[in-house]
Amino acid sequence: MAHECPRCTFVANRESIYISPQWKAKAVYEPLTFGVYTMKDWVGHTNFYLFKCSECQQASVDYLHGYTSLGSLSGLLFLSCLHCNTKLVLDSHYKNVYESEGFEPPPSPASLFFKLSWKRLLSVGSLMVIIVLLLLILLKL
Ligand SMILES: [Zn+2]
Ligand SMILES: [Zn+2]
């Protein structure tokens, strides 16, 4: 029994989604909300995004896949190109995509840096306290 609802469009597969010339002209490397689709045997529907592939430079549509497992790029969502399968990995730069889908966005390098430097500050701070205490003890002796 196919999923039926007024909000989405049924398509046989991703390749059969029509990308009009207007949409093609709009495609950029940043994914844009394209439409809501469902396919055979799906229980619901999902958002599709339009983006320009950085590899083959063609307009492509896909829904979010998860998750990557590539070292520092692991745990991220990605879109893959219809034409050449190149992955567009959604890092913290694409925070808005995560937020619009209700996912926790990955931490940005800036906030990671802040956390690191905050820890460093704390350890430098405690080192200073130890040095001051040692000096006080030495001075008293
Ligand atoms: Zn639907
Ligand atoms: Zn491509």
Helix and strand arrangement:
Elements: E1 9-10, H1 21-26, E2 32-38, E3 46-52, E4 59-62, E5 77-80, E6 87-90, H2 95-100, H3 109-140
Parallel strand pairs: 1-2
Antiparallel strand pairs: 2-3, 3-4, 5-6
This protein binds zinc ion (2 copies).
Describe, in plain words, how this protein is organized in 3D.
- This protein is α+β, with helices and mostly antiparallel strands.
- The chain folds into two domains: 9-106, no CATH class; 107-141.
- The protein has three helices and six strands.
- It has helices at 21-26, 95-100, 109-140, and strands spanning 9-10, 32-38, 46-52, 59-62, 77-80, 87-90.
- The model has no long low-confidence stretch (mean pLDDT 89).
- The chain binds zinc ion (2 copies).
- The site of one zinc ion (ZN) has 6 residues, from loops.
